[in-house]
Structure formats: structure tokens, C-alpha cells
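To whoever is covering the structure queue this week,

Two jobs came back overnight. Logging them here so there's a record in the thread.

Job A:
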Amino acid sequence: MKLTSFGPANTIARAAETHPLTWRLRDDGEPIWLDEYQAKDGYAAARKAFADMSQDDIVQTVKDSGLKGRGGAGFPTGVKWGLMPKDESMNIRYLLCNADEMEPNTWKDRMLMEQQPHLLIEGMLISARALKAYRGYIFLRGEYTTAAKHLNRAVQEAKAAGLLGKNILGSGFDFELFVHTGAGRYICGEETALINSLEGRRANPRSKPPFPAAVGVWGKPTCVNNVETLCNVPAIVGNGIDWYKSLAREGSEDHGTKLMGFSGKVKNPGLWELPFGITARELFEDYAGGMRDGFTLKCWQPGGAGTGFLLPEHLDAQMYAGGIGKVGTRMGTGLAMAVDDSVNMVSLLRNMEEFFARESCGFCTPCRDGLPWSVKLLRAIETGNGQPGDIETLLGLVGFLGPGKTFCAHAPGAVEPLGSAIKYFRAEFEAGIKPVTPGSLTQVATPTMAGA
């Protein structure tokens, strides 16, 4: 899989203006260590933030920029920061980086951490200054061993240079940063489950309220942000609000750029930093090169396994939250997957739902029992042993596991692709239902609210 920043026609100077996340990347893919990072204006934004901006100025700048979370939820970052208490007596605060990138078909944060670890550290340093957080943790997916190695080295380099630790840049501000590798659970991507895991507890989501900004890790005010989100902060502080807003395409309600990608049977699978508002067709045809010879695009997901399927005619949608929302699903992580015409949708959905069922924390009944139920039905349909009413049962589960019906967003994300697959490819599901013959009729088990 290629990790590509920008096209060869871009000069370094031009790329710095249009690709704030990736312009520093090396052609050989090797990590950028401290000396090279600083030679490419690294930590210049941090020095500006410490010397010329108050903590409230940093928060307001990020808020006015319109930066939104890049982990999939898209919550405004400045608003989230503003939820942290203003009470100066609450001087123990934490900043957590959500690097538990376990969404299937998503690898954008991995690239940033492996190749530009100091960009993340600088983003966390500026953010910690704004939030008055004295300690930070990068909660890293345990399988990302290379990222862990590079991050730990970069943390040591920053400490030796006086960019982490005590009295940073002579400001009197202290910030300690630690890399914490998780045990490998998808649910840790939910911020309160991440907090529980960091504390050494079972990774179950917490009831909200209270929100982490009030009661987070070890009961103290806590802010949790995604890797890509934090990596945007230095460029916003360094280049200003107007510049950041100018990066997106006309018509986009989201500002800045986004790491987007395409995988599947495409000619040029990869990852690119592109402006919000680019069409999915440009991403698919101009960057991913379209489908490989001999394959036809059947459908696609815009941003990870937890987003709904879309058809080829939806490729003209703009890649931002509202643009993808107009065609019936969520942008998610922005890393799309092409499904070719050789794939059976029932088998694909059975595979997905097995993953989601296995990764459920088991806390609430609809998710704990509903997802395995969907797997059981999909297995039967896949082998041609589906019963009349099974499709209706699956659609019932899609409703009962939807938004607002479960303790966290795991189940709604799990059933969104299932509902869209039945909507667009119902005939493939119907093909797995046994025909009704005399004497074969059985009672159809349709889910009820009590049973779900």
C-alpha cells in the first residue's frame, strides 16, 4: 500500500502551503527525526504559541479555524477544548491522543506516527499548553510496533531538546508525554473506553455525563483528540485561520485538508492529503486510478467498515461530512474501500459483522446479543439456508441497534453497512433464502424491542 503525500508537480514550497500534514514527508518513507523536522520549520508554531499567544488565544484560534475531529465523529475541536474547566485550582489535567486506529480499512494515523512523530508531539505540546494539561498520553494500538518505536525515540529527542519536560522554552510550563500501547480492542477507539483501559480497567464505555472534560482519566479533567486532529494544530497556529479555511474546496462546510485514501481492486491504492470538498470521483479516478483491468466497481464505502455502502452513481458526492451525508451515510475516517463485482455482499457483510460482534464490549444487550444474531442469520443466508423472514429480521436489528438505541456508537456503526447492503443488493440476500415448499413453513422470528 502506497503512502503518498502529494503529486510530483508540487514543489516543496507550494506543498507547504497546501499540504500542512504531509509536505515534510521523505521520498524514501523514512521517519523525520528532530534535526530534519526543525530544519523544515518544525516546532516553529510551538515557539510562536509559547511566546506570542495566551492559552485562551490558542483555544480561540483552533475554535475559529473550524477544525473538527478527524477520528470519524467530526466534533469541533475548539468546542471540545472549551469544555475543559476554567477553574485554575483544578491544576491536574490530562491530554490523551487517541491512536487506537482499529477501524478496518483505515491506516492514516499510522503513516503520521511512523513517518512524522514530531508533528504529533508538536501538536500535543501546543494543545497541552492551551488546555493547561501537565501530562499527556498517546494511547497507541498495540499492533503498531513501528509507530511505538518511532514515537518513543521522538519523545526522547524532544525531552533532550527542552521541548518536553520542565519549564518548556523557558515558559514555566511543564508537560510530560508518554506512549502507552493498548492490548488491542476496537472499542478503545471510544474515548471513555480508552480512558478505562488506560486506568487498567476493562475497556467499557462510560456513561456520559459526566464527560471526560469534567471527569476523565483518574477522575481529572481530560481531553481526548485523534492523531490527525492534533497534527493539524501546528499549521493552524503557525499560518492562521484564514489560510486554513482557504484550503478546502468551494461548497465544503469543513475546513482544511484531510488524509483520504482508496483500497480494494483499484490501480493505485494509497493515501493522499486532499482538500475537503474534493469529489469522491476525483479521489477514485484521478488518485486511485479507477478499477483494475477486468474489474468493475460494484459499490464503495467512504470511510471505514462502519460506514454505509454507496453505489457508483454516488461518486460525485463531495468528500466532507455534509457532502457524504447527502447521499445517505457518513464520511467516517475518509479512507474509502472499493468493492468489485466479484464480491458477494452477503459474504462481505458476514465477515464484517463477525468482526463487530467479536469487538463488542458486551455491556448492553442490543449490541451483545444483536450482533451475534445478525452473524447467525448471515451465515445461514450465505450457505443458502436462510429462512423466510430472515431479511426482515436483519432489517429489524438494523433499527434496534441504530443511533440512540445502545450505550455507545459501536452497534450503530456495525449495522450501518448491513442496512445499506440490503437496501442496494437485496436480491443477493434473497438468493440465500430457502424456497417455501409445503410442510417447510416455520414460525418467523421477527425481533421485538423486548427481544432485541
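Job B:
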Amino acid sequence: MSLLDKERSIKNHEITALENVESFLKTIKKKNNSINAFLEIKEDEAIQAAEKIDSKIEKGAEVGKLAGLAVGIKSNINIEDFKITAASKTLENYIGSYNATVVNRIKEQDGIILGVTNMDEFAAGSSTETSYFGYTENPAVPGRIPGGSSGGSAAAVAAEMCDLSLGSDTGGSIRNPASHCGVMGFKPTYGVVSRQGLLDLAMSLDQIGPFAQDAGGIALMLDTIAGYDPIECTSLKDTPDFGGITEKSQDALKGMKVGVVKEFFDVSDDKIVNIIEERIDKMTEAGAEVVELSFDYIDLCLPTYYLINYVEFFSATRKYDGRKYGYRIEDVCGDEVLRRIHIGSYISQKEYSGKYYKKALQARSLIRREITKLLGGVDVIVGPTVPKLPHKLGESLDTMEMYAYDVLTVIANLAGIPAASMKAGEVDGIPVGLQIQGKPLDDAKIIHAMAGLEQI
């Protein structure tokens, strides 16, 4: 059953919201001890919310577009009365005192929040191994990382512990785990979804976005959480319309111009390339036109991204000084968080900012301009989401090996464009993600392409 079919079934009372929630709670009890996708569940509150929705449906009252659907929220997005820790000892006892805008919008549409999901500490990672509360297992490939930093949210959907989940994406933190866990993940155009209530990693790069099993679920969640937020400074007044997108996606690929960038394949493992090329062949069979493109700045993307990330992360973490709440971050955080704080502190100094940070901003402008130019002649760009397969849990990687997971995903964040990942196939049973990128505010076009790919 697709998520849109389930939504209709709940509204028609063929399935009750309570039955849906209880089924997920049962799955969580069975699987979460080994997978560690959820850090906190509020079972009684979820059941009470489901009962209220069922009562409204029985009385013929109007219900929201997420009525009775179960949602997981990444642990760096504020939810009132939940522990919002960003998977760090720094905030291990911090209780959210308000709801993020996206959480309020989910509740307004009768979505049921089950709990908060695991992540890399302060979103600084690509594997969900750096969480203070333990690593998350990949449900699709036990023994391997689920990706990060939103690994708990991806794993929760992949393990069928919830209908939908939210993550945050600074340089691939939604798309990376979506690829490794074999689900769909979407990073919207910068400013389409409010960041109010997000514990930011790098404010000029961060976006909140959804995970789902199908394109209909992605569209439904974006239709809920997207839109202007007057209290959030990066929020855009004009945002895409996501309503009914997948209902209109019959023959969506026919006539679509699909850009294929040579350099994205050059940096990826051959087995991944083979899977992606097979999927592109299917797109052409469905009527898409492939346009070959070249991007000469692939080697510039990672250093540009991380220099900006370091500086903005250092700035964002200055509020965790142990005075108002929690512990002083430098006293209790893990190695990767400390590394980013120290490097960010160093290159933020006046004598170094011109040498590193300002040059990174110039490089970012160049990357944005070149990607915009590439997108000018096509509808979307497709390629691998992640250039290599997920490593085994506990395997030791040096810093640059870990950062290399992000080489194909940071581009969308630097350019502020929408991007998604969906399963393209498997290599020896390990999911491989296809990344689809589009022009700013062409988010809906990406979902059309995802829905078209689902059909084939």
C-alpha cells in the first residue's frame, strides 16, 4: 500500500489511526533495541493522539492531510517536552520548551509524532556512529552504517517503524542515509522549509526535509512543512506547490531533459556507476532525453563546503557554554565535533579569515554559478548519491575518507538547490541511491521524476 493509499484508508476508516500507530509501536519494541533508530518514544501520547483523530473521523469532522500517519523527528529539531539532545552529552538532559515550525505544521495536519531519532552528534558526521547514545544499525544491510547524519530517521523508515520522518541536510545528511538505507530522502531548495527550531550546524547550508518509502510520501510531507514562516529569516515567500504531484506523474519522464555529469561518475565506484547507468537507460526508454554535461570544479566542492561548515559550526556552538543549559560543549563532545570547533575557531581569526573563509565564499559563488549554468539546459541532473558503498560498523576510516562520502551531495547545499535520493538498485544486497538535482524552486519537478522512476 502506498502512503497516499494508506492516508485515504485512514480517512475512510478502513484502517484506524490507532491501528496504524499501535502497529508501529509494536515494530519499534521488536526492532529498536538492535537498530537504535529512536532515542525516545512517547507511547501514551501517540496513542491518545491517534484516538482523537479516529474520533474526529467517526464524527465526520475535517482532518488534516497527515491524519493518523506516524512520524519520527531527528533529535536536533525541537519538540516540546521531548529530550532534544542532537545526540550529544552536551544536551543529554535538555527538554524542548517549544515546537519547531515544522513540528507545529505536522501536528496541525494531524500527523502523530512517535519520538526523536538518532543522529551523528550535532549532525557532524556521515555514518551515525558518533552519537553519544550509540550507533544506529542499517536495517537494509545489518552490520553496515546507515549513513548520516540523519541515520536514525532513515533507518526508522527503512525498518518500517514509522510512515515518515524528518532529517536535516547540511551537506548530504538526508540524501546520504537515504541512499545507504534504500529509502527516499529530499533536501528542499534553501528557504522552502522553515529552519525555526533547528539546532543548526551551518546556518547558510542547513535544510529540514523528509524521508519516506515512496514519492507520494515525500510530496505529502513537503506539502505539510513547506511554506513561508514570518519568524524565520531565511524563509522564502514564494514556495513550490506540492499538492497532488504524484497523481499527475503518469509518463512524467517523457520529454524530460536529464543531465548526466561525467565527473560525478568519475569519482564513484564502478559497481555504483553500473547501477546508475542502468537506471538512466530505463529513463531514456521511458522517453527522457539524456544530455551529457561536464563540471570542472568537483575537486573544489569538498574543501569549500568544509571551510564554510567549520566557521559556521564554531559560531553556532558558542551558545553551548554550559551556563544556560547542558554542559560546555568542548568539555564533553566527541572527536569530530571538537575537530570542527578547533578548526572553525582557528580560521575565524581575523588574520586567517581572508586566507580561508572569504576564499571559500568566493569558491561557493563560483560553484553556484556553474551548477546553475549546467541546470539551465536541462530539467534535472541525475547521478550517484554517494560515490562509495557504506562501510562496516566500527571500521576505522581517516577523516578524509569519511568526508569523501559527501563529495556529490555538498554541491546542492553550496548552490542552494533542491536534491533528492531514491533507490536505484543494489550491489551485493547493498542499496545504491540515485541523486536527482534541480533548479532552485524546481522541487516539484524532482518529485515528478521520482514518481516517474517508481513507475518503471
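Note for Job B: The domain at 3-248 is CATH 3.90.1300.10 (Amidase signature (AS) enzymes).

Please reply-all if you pick these up so we don't duplicate work.
Q.
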